[in-house]
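Sequence and structure are kept together here, with a separate record for every protein. A complete record is shown below as an example:
=====
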Amino acid sequence: MRVLFITYFFPPDKSVGGFRAASLVNYFPEKDIDIALLTADTSEKKRKELEQKFGKEYFFLSRAPQIREIGYKTKILSLIELLNLEHYLFFPDVYFSWIRRTCKIGKKLIQEGKIDAVLVTLPPYTSAVVGYKLAKKYNLPLILDYRDPWSSHTGLRFPKFIVKQRHRRLERKIANYSKLIITVGDGYAKLISNATNIDEKEISVIPNGYYASNKPTQIAPKIQEKFTLSFFGNYSKAHSKIVKEFVLGFRIMVDKNKLGPSDITLRYAGIQSRSTLQRDLEFGSITKYFEDLGNLEGAEMIKEIQKSHINYVFAPKILDHNLATKIFDYGLGNSHILVIGEKKAIYNWCISVEQEFTHVEGDRHAIAEGLENLYKLWKDNKLEYGCDEKEIAKYNRKTLALKFADLLNKTLKTK
């Protein structure tokens, strides 16, 4: 069987959205599924790496739109996003100009070679439009892999009801044409069901996970000289309120306990805008406590996770369905996880893998109290780390990709 796989993000891009796509491409052949990968061409480095790994006959590139890069350089796009105008000006998202040229390449691929189905992972939602157009034109099954909800996404602010309805109509048309819908969590499935009117039981769940190559062979020692809290990954506008509460809670805690940068530190690694980070730190006047680790990946990131005493994650109410991808790496990294916010997806996951963790509500005083308690446990050498290795093993990306392939094979054999 041969599948045309459309994904905007793919390594060597450092976007989290490319990790899941890469795992499918790597492991589908073990289940007799050949992949024709259609992805965005963002750099010469990407082209060379893909050629070396997959060979020219297996991947195809469509020139990525420059609107985001140009927009941020001129500060126009950031202003548009700040004023919440992007959904007025771009449909279905800022990658909309990718649709025409990607459809053109996709048509050529389908006409020249035998394609049995079209698989799309989204967001961006532009990719779903491309997949739908191609699948419908050539009467092929369409498989949708939702890494995030679309019109029911609680973290997306649609400026007017009519705009949200426009997205919902398009999503329903695409989803109801599809042969199979897969997503990464139960909370996601519920939101997608609400948006599409497709029974939640008909939406399959295959979570994200971790790469076995990142699994440490030994436990790295914790940083000894000061209490170390670390955050890996990135956060969105939907996190802004809870991030500010964390910053203020941290400020309350260090002031109360008279702690300086030699006693406690906040570390960060990821692709988050440094201007955004700086603004958040300045909000609580805690810049002097901050250490920037850059953008770490793979085993190097796991090593730094292991060095931390606390790896924290935000769980705001507006995103209580969200199971952050970094949570799997935290589980691998002999962590003590601090869950800040709701007792929902992340909280439940920690329980399911018997992860050592602490939960605090998302307000500054609860955060300050929680940090103080954790600091005292660390000082007394009583802070506990780790999770159940057998339970975390269920989230090996290879295992999950093969499960995805089995579901795909089963679905297409009954088409």
Notes: The chain has 17 helices and 13 strands. The two ends are 13 Å apart (CA to CA). The longest helix spans residues 161-177. The chain has a mean pLDDT of 90.
